[in-house]
Amino acid sequence: METALLKATSKSSVPENALETVVAVFSVSDPDSGDNGKMVCSIQNDLPFLLKPTLKNFYTLVTDGPLDRESRAEYNITITVTDLGTPRLKTQHNITVQVSDVND
Ligand SMILES: *[C@@H]1O[C@H](CO)[C@@H](O)[C@H](O)[C@H]1NC(C)=O
Ligand SMILES: *[C@@H]1O[C@H](CO)[C@@H](O)[C@H](O)[C@H]1NC(C)=O
C-alpha cells in the first residue's frame, strides 16, 4: 500500500519579519492498519520552519520566527512521510517558499 501525502493548501511566499506564518496545511493517509499505518512526518531540521501536528493525520507547516529576506530569500522544504512498516514506505513532497520584502 502506498503512503500518501495530500497537500491541502500552501503559500509560495511568506512576508519577512512576520512572527508565525502558516506556509502549508496538509494531511497524510496510509490505508494500512497496524505498524504499517503509523506515520512519521518530518522536514529538514536546519530550516527555520516547524511541522506541527494538528488533527490526526493533519499537519501545519509554519515559520519558526521571523525570516529575513536579506539573509535568505528562498527555501526548498522537503516534507518526508514514512510509515513504520517493513519495509518502510517513504513519500516526499517539495515546497519552495519565497520570502517577500515588506520594507517598501
Ligand atoms: C530550490 O530548488 C530550485 C529548483 O530545484 C533551485 O533552482 C533553487 O536553487 C533551490 N533553492 C535553494 C535555496 O536551495
Ligand atoms: C525534493 O528535493 C530533494 C532535495 O533537493 C530531492 O532529492 C528530491 O528528489 C525532491 N523530490 C521530489 C519529489 O521532487
UniProtKB/TrEMBL annotation:
One of its GO terms (biological process) is homophilic cell adhesion via plasma membrane adhesion molecules. GO terms for cellular component: plasma membrane. It is a single-pass membrane protein. This is Cadherin domain-containing protein. Residues 6-104 form the Cadherin domain. SUPFAM superfamilies: Cadherin-like. The keyword rRNA-binding does not apply. SMART domains: CA (SM00112). It holds the Pfam family Cadherin. It is found in: Membrane. GO terms for molecular function: calcium ion binding. The keyword Disulfide bond does not apply. It comes from Nannospalax galili.
